[in-house]
UniProtKB/TrEMBL annotation:
It comes from Planosporangium mesophilum. Coiled coil: none annotated. InterPro entries: Methyltransf_25, SAM-dependent_MTases_sf. Keywords: Methyltransferase, S-adenosyl-L-methionine, Transferase. It comes from the Bacteria. This is Methyltransferase domain-containing protein.
Length: 204
């Protein structure tokens, strides 16, 4: 998830525990088998979009969000740094295009994907795992992959090392504007006491 710098939290996790990615995959497979609701983020994105929109799932993991959006009729490309997670997405959710890639250097036209996206979704605390020095680069790369009228949606826990004010400063520095701040994927307002942030952003 994110970049390969030494500060990357996901890389630290899998270096400390090489089985962590597989544990993560099996955890969500078990939750899905048990009938748990894993699609809240995807429903939020789907509600924003016209039918057959293009969606970039940035930090797609094992495909939980992108697969729901693909099943809803959208064209999905997912990108994640972790090849184990991407392989699981390819196995469990055929249809979308799942790619291994560094979000801070993302250049999909160079990989043959030249058409922009109506939405970029970055869920699952991805922005709290990436190296702090790459956060603005990642936000900029999300912005440049948007079509006209496209939006970026980022969600993360507010107690995970990325201060909300710092995030909003990074958003502005990356050429994005804030349209909406929420505290949950089910549309509850954001307040100073919120422990989660969902930010809907658009190009400046």
């Amino acid at each position: 998830m994110g970049d390969v710098g030494e500060q990357n939290g996901w890389i630290k996790l899998i270096e400390a525990d090489p089985g962590h990615s597989q544990w993560y995959i099996e955890r969500f497979r078990s939750m899905a088998s048990a009938g748990e609701d894993l699609a809240g983020e995807a429903r939020f994105i789907d509600a924003m979009l016209a039918r057959r929109s293009r969606v970039l799932d940035a930090g797609c993991g094992a495909g939980r969000v992108g697969s729901f959006l693909a099943a809803a009729g959208h064209e999905v490309v997912g990108v994640d740094l972790d090849p184990v997670l991407v392989a699981a997405a390819q196995q469990d959710h055929p249809g979308p295009r799942w790619l291994v890639g560094d979000l801070s250097e993302l250049d999909l036209p160079a990989r043959g994907i030249v058409e922009g996206f109506d939405a970029v979704v970055c869920a699952g605390n991805v922005m709290t795992f990436v190296a702090p020095s790459t956060r603005r680069d990642i936000l900029r790369r999300m912005r440049v992959h948007l079509r006209d009228g496209g939006r970026v949606v980022v969600g993360f826990g507010t107690a995970r090392g990325y201060d909300v004010e710092e995030f909003l400063t990074d958003v502005e520095a990356s050429g994005l504007l804030t349209d909406l701040l929420l505290s949950t994927w089910d549309l509850r307002p954001f307040t100073e006491r919120s422990d989660f942030l969902v930010a809907v952003l658009r190009p400046a």
